[in-house]
């Protein structure tokens, strides 16, 4: 290759714009899904100083390990109880993860492939969303990328430093979400050894260093599970008595999730879940990824390309497809391997006229669809009103149009820049307009903001199934449910409930005083009537916070 596919100056420009969009996402209010739930668990740690026990609104929480909660709680100590503080650790680790993808691509191929892979991952929908709607998976994918780089580095260089790095990456991934963080990079390593036919590596005694150090590094998490569950057999967790916490985290966790036991079976009947979900989670590079994978399967016997990324993509795709519990936010774990695979498709075929034309058509079509989606959402569903955001969007759109019409830019380079630029525009509008406007229909934060300094959050009790992680987080308190004694003794307190529960509340014969309300909708389950501005109001519930003065 006589010249780089993308110049360093272009990389610097694209990563700078991506960085600004990522930073904007740090300040978006939290959603009342896993993000709000996890932030509240970290809040419990912060407020109580108890970093051993995982406690959520239902009591003891066993499903996920500690690392995300630990880092978020520590971040609260530095930045206060804010959305920024909760997301900041994931953002920092993701920077390291993107760099690790560059190094992985460089190890497997060359620096050009590594740089492009880092750009593809950083501009993919699933990775960008993972830094806004923060759950375990953004941090997990960063650690998987780091562990993958270190494992491949050891295969190439046989240096002990790579073994130490691999153990650290695997331990952090495990301590974030369990076995999947261990299986993904180790499976990639296995396929890579098969590809290279270096059979001696399969029983290289140096792997014992990784195993021992991995065990030492995960011991704090395992010990916490022992303290919280093994020492308290009287606890009932999800209807199960005498829970063995150590066995759960070391063995049962991901296997039970795969089988649907204890966790339910979301999407268990959809065997094509991975196929269609990947289309939007890895946009705008999804079609190129399927193209690259199909090409590699066709050429598998010739060993023309490495099997680390191919095998990881295939294995994780199959595991997700046949799992009885699968959700879209699981897919960032394959972003590192997929980004390298797609980057190689671009760099290896830059001078192939047929491939250049095909990839140009794929990427430009995808980019146009993304721009149209961004336009539709931000002009019709949630119209832009903020002048600086409008100016920024117009400038970004103007830049994309310039790229599209400029005939001096190589088509493949144009396709890559347009695709990354379309994602930058999309998430610029999502983080600065769509999400803030959307989250105004999630009542927790608006109620916390309205009542700050007026209502003591320690006096707030929820009625029955009414739940708001965001209110708990932004008011800095724990969820408490109204009980019989509180209802009967005529105490003064504040009651949170939904408008749809008003009839039940009226039957309690409370004397009420001040009240606050905010519109509410389960925004993680948007539907057509809610998205349509004309029918939205009719589909809203309302969350109410009422002062109870006693009984009538």
Give your account of this protein's structure.
The chain is α+β, with helices and mostly antiparallel strands and 552 residues long. It has two domains: 31-348, no CATH class; 443-551, Translation Initiation Factor IF3 (2-Layer Sandwich), CATH 3.30.110. 62% of the residues lie in helices and 7% in strands. The protein is built from 23 helices and eight strands. The chain has helices at residues 8-25, 34-48, 67-79, 83-108, 111-122, 125-130, 137-157, 160-177, 180-196, 207-230, 245-259, 273-281, 286-298, 308-322, 335-348, 353-381, 387-405, 411-438, 444-451, 469-475, 484-488, 502-506, 528-531, and strands at residues 55-56, 59-60, 236-237, 240-241, 460-462, 493-498, 510-520, 541-551. The strands form three sheets. It has a four-stranded mixed sheet. It has a two-stranded antiparallel ribbon with strand order 1-2. Strand 3 (236-237) and strand 4 (240-241) form a beta hairpin. Helix 4 (83-108) packs across helix 15 and helix 16 packs parallel to helix 18. The longest helix is centred in the middle third of the chain and has 29 residues, at 353-381.
Quick recap of the structure?
With 552 residues, the chain is an alpha+beta fold. It folds into 2 domains: 318 residues, no CATH class; 109 residues, Translation Initiation Factor IF3, CATH 3.30.110. Helices cover 62% and strands 7% of the residues.
Which labels suit this protein?
552 residues; alpha+beta; Translation Initiation Factor IF3; 4-stranded mixed sheet; 62% helix; globular
């Amino acid at each position: 290759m006589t010249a780089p596919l993308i110049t360093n100056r272009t990389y610097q420009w694209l990563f700078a714009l991506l960085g600004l969009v990522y930073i904007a996402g740090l300040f978006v209010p939290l959603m009342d899904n896993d993000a709000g739930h996890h932030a509240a668990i970290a809040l419990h740690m912060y407020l109580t100083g108890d970093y051993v026990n995982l406690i959520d609104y239902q009591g003891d929480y066993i499903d996920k390990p500690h690392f995300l909660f630990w880092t978020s709680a520590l971040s609260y100590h530095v930045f206060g109880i804010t959305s920024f503080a909760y997301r900041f650790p994931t953002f920092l680790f993701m920077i390291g993860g993107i760099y690790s993808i560059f190094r992985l691509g460089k190890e497997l191929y060359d620096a050009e492939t590594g740089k492009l892979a880092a750009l593809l991952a950083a501009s993919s929908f699933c990775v960008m969303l993972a830094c806004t709607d923060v759950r375990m998976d953004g941090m997990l994918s960063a650690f998987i990328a780091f562990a993958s780089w270190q494992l491949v580095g050891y295969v190439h260089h046989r240096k002990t430093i790579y073994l130490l790095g691999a153990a650290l990456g695997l331990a952090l991934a495990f301590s974030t979400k369990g076995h999947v963080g261990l299986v993904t990079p180790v499976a990639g390593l296995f396929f890579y050894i098969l590809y290279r036919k270096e059979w001696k590596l399969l029983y290289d005694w140096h792997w014992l260093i990784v195993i021992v150090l991995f065990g030492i590094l995960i011991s704090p998490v395992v010990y916490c599970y022992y303290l919280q569950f093994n020492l308290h057999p009287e606890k009932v967790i999800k209807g199960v008595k005498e829970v063995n916490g150590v066995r759960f985290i070391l063995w049962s966790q991901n296997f039970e999730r795969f089988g649907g036991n204890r966790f339910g079976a979301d999407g268990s009947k959809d065997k094509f879940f991975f196929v269609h979900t990947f289309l939007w989670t890895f946009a705008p590079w999804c079609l190129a990824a399927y193209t690259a994978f199909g090409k590699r399967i066709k050429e598998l016997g010739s060993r023309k390309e490495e099997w680390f990324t191919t095998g990881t993509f295939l294995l994780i795709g199959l595991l997700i497809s046949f799992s009885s519990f699968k959700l879209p936010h699981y897919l960032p774990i394959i972003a590192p391997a997929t980004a390298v695979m797609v980057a190689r498709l671009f760099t290896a075929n830059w001078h192939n006229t047929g491939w250049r034309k095909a990839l140009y058509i794929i990427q430009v079509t995808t980019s146009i669809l993304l721009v149209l989606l961004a336009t539709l959402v931000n002009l019709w569903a949630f119209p832009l009103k903020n002048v600086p955001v409008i100016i920024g969007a117009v400038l970004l759109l103007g830049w994309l149009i310039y790229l599209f019409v400029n005939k001096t830019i190589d088509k493949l380079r144009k396709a890559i820049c347009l695709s990354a630029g379309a994602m930058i525009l999309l998430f610029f509008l999502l983080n600065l307009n769509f999400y803030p406007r959307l989250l105004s229909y999630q009542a927790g934060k608006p109620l916390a903001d309205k009542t700050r300094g007026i209502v003591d959050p320690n006096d707030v009790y929820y009625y029955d199934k009414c739940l708001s992680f965001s209110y708990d987080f932004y008011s800095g308190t724990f969820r408490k449910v109204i009980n019989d004694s509180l209802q009967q003794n005529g105490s003064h307190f504040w009651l949170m409930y939904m408008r749809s529960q008003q009839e039940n509340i009226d039957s309690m014969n409370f004397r009420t005083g001040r009240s606050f309300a905010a519109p509410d909708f389960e925004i993680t389950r948007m539907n057509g009537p809610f998205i349509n501005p004309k029918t939205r109001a009719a589909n809203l519930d309302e969350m109410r916070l009422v002062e109870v003065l006693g009984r009538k």
